[in-house]
Amino acid sequence: MSDILxxxxxxxLDAELEMAExxxxxxxxxxxxxxxxxxxxxxxxxxxxxxxxxxxxxALGRTGRAWCPTPRxxxxxxxxxxxxxxxxxxxxLHAVNHRKFAVELSLGLSEQRYVEDRGELDEILRKKxxxxxxxxxxxxxxxxxxxIFGQVDAKQSAWIDASLRRTGLVIEPFVTPTLEVSLHGxxxxxxxxxxxxxxxxxxxxxxxxxxxxxxxxxxLLAAEELRLVDAAEQTAAALSAAGYFGPFGIDAYRYSxxxxxxxxxxxxxxxxxxxxxxxxxxxxxxxxxxx
Length: 291
Known about the structure:
Elements: H1 2-5, E1 7-10, H2 15-20, H3 28-37, E2 50-51, E3 63-66, H4 71-80, E4 83-84, H5 90-97, H6 99-103, E5 113-115, H7 118-127, E6 132-135, E7 145-148, H8 154-166, E8 169-173, E9 177-187, E10 193-195, E11 199-203, E12 209-214, H9 222-241, E13 246-257, E14 260-270, H10 277-280
Parallel strand pairs: 1-2, 1-3, 3-4
Antiparallel strand pairs: 5-8, 6-7, 6-8, 9-10, 9-11, 9-13, 11-12, 13-14
């Protein structure tokens, strides 16, 4: 039926916050930010698709599709009278979008760790005098991060304790990327995966997405592209093994270290749609099916 009528979309760009805290309720300021941020996500919709929002509360006969098929997204579809397309269960979505999943692939920065104990974290911070970046395991667009330069102050300490009471933290050296890239893919229900083309992303200094385009000839070194594709293949295999199917993307970057250029082939995994999917994948979402 969706081939005729198109999909009924839920653009729940705050999916990670829901997965982190099921009782989460978006504040008006965040909703306004997501509405502005979500304008670009509408490129995911095909010509016959509709967006489930205030202007389209009912979409009978269509198949439901979400940015990420969390329980709230599925509930919104049910309210609109549509059946969701096949999707992984919440337990799988939570596991593969949790940053611990990416850390355990050991494709990121060599000193990257996932920690759950304050003592272990403090030991890492004391062990080497350098700048560090702390990340909460379920966040997006640069949210849920803390930069540590030198001693941890009282405000940072409170943030760390609050984070560790709920879950762990990713700690990694703070570096400044000089080229940020991504690679998108799609995993079918029979575990086959298809990769797109490498893209260059522009993000703010806090990690908020701004724009994306295909890489230009020579912009990404051959060795870097090989490592990026290999990381995407390993990620796809790990996602499939965990029971995930659907769209995904990985982020990577080139950075300067001790006066030399280095490359991190995996900084983030997004097991969902993303702002760059339409640019980075050879087929539009309207041409993809999980039936």
